[in-house]
Design brief:
Elements (H helix, E strand, L loop, with lengths): L3 H15 L7 E3 L13 E12 L5 E16 L3 H22 L5 E11 L4 E16 L3
Parallel strand pairs: 1-2
Antiparallel strand pairs: 2-3, 3-5, 4-5
Helix pairs in contact: 1-2
Length: 138
Amino acid sequence: MAHYRSEFRVAVREALAAHSRFSGFTVLPVWRGVIDDQTLPVIGVLTPSDRRERPSRSGVTCRTLLQVAVRRSGGEDIEDLLDLDSEVVEAVVTQALLKMQQGCFLENTSLATNTDGRQNVGTMVMDFGLTSFRNIPT
């Protein structure tokens, strides 16, 4: 049986890869620091943190941060493209997790743009908060 965070990542990754807006994207299971021009556009899904609270003797409340990162090249409209991407990402992530009976909430979206001298490259990171209730491993 897979770990619950792994199940979250796989479900979201597969749902994003299946959506027509992202058909030309490379979906990376691991986001490397440097991504060359030939690999763009890319999507990465990660769960970098998981905070736990102990509401009972046998269970914990897990507050998992799930991030979706999108990096693409574009012209002067790169932020507009990422804004359109963000609407689709939010809908796809929410639907994928609800199919697992796992609610989520978009907490933050950040955009960064830069140029490599030839083209504009934009990166968007969307932070989703997931709350789940787990038994304490024994």
